Structures are given as structure tokens and as C-alpha cells.
Amino acid sequence: MKTIILIFLCMILLAPCPVEAVRIKDIASYDGVRENQLIGYGIVVGLNATGDSDQTKFPVQSMVNVLERMGVTVNRSDITVKNAAAVMVTATLPAFAKQGSRLDVLVSSMGDAKSIAGGTLLMTPLRGADNQVYAVAQGGVLTNSFSYGGQAGSAMKNHPTAGRILGGALVEREIPFDLSGRVELKLNLHDPDFTTASRMAATINGKFGRAVAACNDPGAVLLALPADYQGKMVQFLAELEGLEVQPDSVARVVLNERTGTIVMGDNVRISTVAISHGNLSLFIKETPKVSQPQPLSSGGETKVVPRTSMQVKEDSGGLTLLREGASIGEVVRALNTLGVTPRDLIGIMQAIKAAGALQAEVTVI
Q: Which residue has the higher pLDDT, 106 or 65?
């Protein structure tokens, strides 16, 4: 009995795992339903002498303008405070946001302020690309950092010149988007693909039992509201976005030479190719030696005599053969036998692509 159970478990573990299906709402979005970026210029006050210095002119002018709007007239040359900093405030306005909804905002210093921790952002209008005010931000800035120091040393944690205000912006203007009177809608794929679009349309039509979805290009699926869902667009979309589809993807290899990161998709395949890799290391060490006269000698001159030692080391590069149709796991195991580092692997993958043996797109970021 134990033998049968062991064989059954081995069959389960060794069986190929199918690609997991994902929800439509995770790989596509409805046309017109999108986020909008907001930006504004503001002043953070209440800093502990860590604000902008006198060399930054525009924060002083901004403070003068703020005081004048409050009925206080001051001379610009009389303001020499260090408790204020000019900042840029950014936020993202989600679709269907209503008046009075709160948004998180990001506050970033513009001048030479050392820290904006503990400061308070004064009321800042946030504008969209059409220069209309859609939200107003104000509140205490949270940076989760600190920066203190004196003339001979300083201590800093995290990034003290940028912070967030959770729920610090109030939506003042809504973006109009009406779903009630629409009978057609377009579903845009995040990553356009012919196979994924076709599978999505087939899944939707199978769910509703009629030709509800059609795709004319790999980036979008056209939807027609069924007759029994007239006036129920929200319910229709709620049922639709929960459907699961198995997406397809292009075989791609992503290389990041700055960090030595390599990411390869499951569909990457390699034709038969032989790979040989070896490292050449050159070590040069400079040890200057000082030559000077003996004590109490009548003459002589002190000189520095350079001494250079050199060592050349070349690792033996083995020859590894990759068979045609090798999977990603076989590629990784074969290249690991050569003892290559991630940066060496980047050069090897580029060489395999140049040899025409890599059936995948190579993207360098």
C-alpha cells in the first residue's frame, strides 16, 4: 500500500503544471476607465531649521505671496527663515472618484532643504493636464526618516526630502464618465497579444452563450451589451471581469547590465549550440619602496622606487552543448555548469542571440 501511495505522489509531483488562468480584470481595462495624474506646487512649513536656504529664491517669493493673500504685507528682503521648503506635490486621481474622496499625495523637495520631516504642507491646488484643479492637498508630511548633523558629522536614515500624506488631498472636481446609456464598450489588453485576445473573446461568448465579444486587433476586445442586461451595465461588467483567461506571452529575455539581473520567460527555447566560456583575470599591485641615506651619513638623497607585481590568471573554459528545443530549466543548469556569474551570463545570452540560436526577444534595460 505504501508503495502505491509513493508512486502516486511521484506522479503528481512529476506531472507538468498547467499555466494558471488569471482574471480578465487583471490583464485588461475598460476603454475610458483610467487614472489621471495630478501635480501642484506648494510650501511645507514647520521644519526645524532644515528648510531651503537663502540661496533658493523661489520659496521666499512663494511665502511672500501666501502672506499677501492673508492680508500680511512684508518686504521680500526681510524674510530669512529656514523653516520652510518649496515642494512639488503629485497624486493620482482614480476613475469614478467623487467629490470629497481622499487621495494619498507624494511631497518632494525642490530646493536645497535637508529634510521635510515633521513639516506641514499648506493648502496646495492639484491640477490635471488640462490645467483644471481637481483636488486640494494639505496636512502633515510623513517621511519615516531623519537627518541630523553638526559641523563635523551628520546622521541620516532613509530619504528625508520626500514624504507622503495619507489621505491628504480632497477631490474637488469629478471626471465625468457615464455608463448607464452605453450599449457598447471596449476592453483594452494591458499587453496586446493575438492569442490572449482570441481566448478572452471565446471565454466571454461561452459565458453568456451568444456573440457578445469580438476582437479585430490584438489590443482590444469589443463588447456588446446583451438584451437581458439593458440598464444593468455595472452588473454585466462585474460578471465579465471575474472570468478567468489563460494569457499567452512572447518568448523574451530581459537583461539588466547595471544590476546583473536576467529574467527569462518559460517559452524561451534554444537551438543546438556549443558554448565555451573562460575568464581572464589580471592582478596588478603597486608597492612603492622608499630608499633613503643611512643615519648620520654625509650625503645622499631620499627617493621612492616603484615596485610592480603582476599576475595573470585564466580560468579553463569548458565546452557545454545545448540541444535543440532546450527548456529554460535546461539552459540554466547547463550554463551553471560553466560557473558563470550573472554578468558573464548576459554576454553569453547576447552571443547566443547573435549566433541565431536563441528563439526569443532580447530586451536590454
A: 106
- Decide: residue 325, CB within 10 A, 0-12 exposed, 13-18 middle, 19+ buried: exposed
Q: Are 253 and 336 in contact (CB under 8 A)?
A: no
Asked, for residue 65, whether it belongs to a domain, the answer is: yes
Helix (H) or strand (E) holding 138: strand 133-140
pLDDT tens track for 235-262: 888 888 889 999 988 888 888 877 778 8
- Tens-digit pLDDT profile for residues 110-125: 988 888 998 999 999 9
Residues 77 and 130 in one domain: yes
Residue 114 cell numbers, joined: 535637508
Instruction: Write down the residue that cell numbers 440598464 correspond to.
Output: 231
Domain region containing 125: 36-147+157-171
Count of domains forming the chain? 3
Residues 6+ apart with CB under 8 A from 54: 60, 80
> What gap in Å lies between CA 305 and CA 307, rounded to an integer?
7
The answer to whether 151 and 157 have CB atoms below 8 angstroms apart is no
Q: Which of 12, 78, 24 is nearest to 197 (CA)?
A: 24
Identify whether 216 is part of a domain: yes
Alpha-carbon distance 51 to 45, whole Å?
8
Amino acid identity for residue 84 in this structure: A
Instruction: Count other Cβ atoms within 10 Å, centred on residue 308.
Output: 9
- Same domain for 337 and 310: yes
Q: What is the mean pLDDT of residues 162-167?
A: 94
Whether the per-residue pLDDT at 4 is higher than 50: the answer is no
Q: Judge if 64 and 91 occupy the same domain.
A: yes
Residues 231 and 280 in one domain: no
